[in-house]
Here is the input.
Amino acid sequence: MIDPTLEFLYGLHNRGIKLGLKNINSFLKICGDPHKKIKTIHLAGTNGKGSTSSIIAKILQNNGYKVGLYTSPHLINFNERIRIDGIPISDEKIIKFIERHKQTLIDSSITFFEATTALAFEHFADQKVDIAIIETGLGGRLDSTNVLTPIQTIITEIHYDHTHILGESIEEITTEKCGIFKDKTPSITVNSDSRAIKTIKEQALLKNVEVSFINKQNIVVKSQQQKSISFSYQDQEFTLPQAGSYQAQNAIMAIKTCQNNFNHLTNENIQLALDQWYWPARMQIMKDNFFYDVAHNRNGVEILTKDLKEIYNKKPLGVVVLKNDKINPELVEMFSQSFEKLIISTIPSKDILNKEEIMKNPLLKNFEFVENLNEALTDINNIEYAGGKVVFGSHYIAKEVYNFFDFSFDNGII
Here is the structure.
């Protein structure tokens, strides 16, 4: 039974987030330093890490490589975080890892994410993956994944998020993300914010890193439909089987990373892999014109609503559930401007804005509130509307959303 093991593992959440590498280095040494036995690509950034990571993994997997993928958070099952060739780690592997290291975990101050990261590295090393794609959990410099010596790093788009930890300015946030830079290890980025670009260049110079800057203006979206997006970059044309204009830049970073490190790949082979790519909860169609997306910061919501308006020529209808640290005037202003109708809802969770917090927040007074998420989804679903509909705001609502639409998650296999 996996439940007692996961209960123990989740219990490590009570130790909070402890940024720094001392804990993880000590624990990895006990585990036999598995991170030193695997070839890796390391990603940091605010938005797009999961999509970019999964596209890299799909391209390499479809071209004959055994590929590990470590992402967070999960949607339904913990096992989703750690995959090899798209298949989540087994319950048995998780149980054996915890049994083997339980006393160490009890006696130490190892956190949930540190334990999970060590589990991922050990699994990838044991299974002798050809390459592992590793996404940071928070920030970069002090993130527990930052013990790696990767063959390449990637900095995805940087925006304001987790400012209470990473810093109040784009420059501070970018500096933390660039903490994954390693001496003479190439990097790639697609940032357009001049402050982020300047900081990336400064950090690259300090750490002797050559960074390839992808100019977003050279990424041309040819067409976007309900279930696909076609785009070009430097006379190369590609199509993804999911909508979302932001996925074009994620895909280009992924494609360039694969081409730079595995130079036998052809555009035809890459496109065959993209045709089979799937990443849940990103412009994911639940039913007809109803989507689910985990967008939760201003930039993510802005792009989401812009894409839906482009596809349907109307402002979308929406249901939003947000973590209690995400509400700010800029985001609420975006809500007001971008939706034809928006319902705010909640779920029972200490991390989610609850009824009391929503009702007393003056920023939210002009929005309809429906406490029960199923009722909120029903209200929007029952409206006859030619535009798009979307439920968004958090990974935490995935189970409720998939259950509402009777949508199979395929056990997390991608």
DSSP finds 15 helices and 17 strands in the chain. The mean pLDDT is 95. The longest helix spans residues 91-107. The first strand starts at residue 40 and ends at 44.
